[in-house]
Amino acid sequence: MKSIVKVISLGVFLSMGVVANATADRERGEDLKWNETTRAGIAPVDNETYLQECGSCHFAYPPGFLPPQSWEKLMGSMHSHFGENVELSKSVRGTLYNYLLNNSAVRSNFEYSNKIMQGLGNNPAPLRITETHYFIRKHDELTPQMVAGNPEVVSFSNCAACHSKASEGSFKEDEVVIPGYGRYED
Ligand code: HEC
Ligand code: HEC
User: Fold this and answer.
1) How far is CA 61 from CA 3, 35, 77, 104, 169, in A?
2) Burial of 12 (0-12, 13-18, 19+ CB in 10 A)
3) Nearest alpha carbon, ligand 1 atom 15
4) Distance 55 CA to ligand 1 centre (A)
5) Is 117 a residue whose pLDDT tops 50?
6) For residues 127 and 153, what is the distance between their CA atoms, to the nearest angstrom?
7) What pLDDT band is residue 185 in, cutting at 50, 70 and 90?
8) 26 CA to middle of ligand 2, Å?
9) For the CA of 84, the nearest atom of ligand 1
């Protein structure tokens, strides 16, 4: 009798641990959907308004590269956007807001989106993709001469300078060509 009670309470104890872990994961935004439905890469941009309004100064970043709270912060501060004043009509703003939030990293079950979420850590709403742990880890072998000191790249924010198929939403390693350095070899 005694041993049955022990077995039951051990079972309860273990399952409480599992529940607590799952809750902690969700709170950290790590409720990842790693399963057979996870797709490779990232969802490509498919919104004309977004391409026009957010792709005129720089590459139109796929929304799946940032969590919803980042897009909210960005859209809430377009009057002082990295030194630029981006003016948007109310209706365009609404369209962009919906598109970005509905396709943010928590909404799209793609490999890079899941990895971005997994690596947010203590910076839950980064204003830049280039600030995320996942981005930094993937680009830490590049030298300053290849980026800041490279007149054809200048900034890591310039994704399409190196990712030859970025506009198709593809960031595979074997498609990287760094201007002046050629195809990237790991
Ligand atoms: C008037 C020009 C301009 C427009 C229009 C514009 N941006 Fe930007 N954006 C910038 C500049 C400048 C930077 C900083 C680039 C750098 O550091 O090299 C930037 C950077 C960003 C970054 C960070 C990139 C990174 O990871 O380093 C995001 C995200 C971004 N913009 C989103 C948007 C969105 C969303 C819109 C449309 C609502 C938009 N931008 C429209 C000028 C613009
Ligand atoms: C100076 C060139 C350069 C720029 C600019 C650049 N990248 Fe990269 N990126 C690379 C290289 C090189 C790799 C491969 C790194 C490796 O395998 O070690 C890479 C890898 C990646 C990967 C991982 C690919 C995979 O399947 O493992 C992603 C995702 C990515 N970059 C996204 C971006 C985004 C988004 C931007 C813009 C915000 C960007 N990159 C800007 C050079 C660049």
Assistant:
1) 59, 25, 17, 11, 9
2) exposed
3) 157
4) 8
5) yes
6) 20
7) confident
8) 27
9) 1
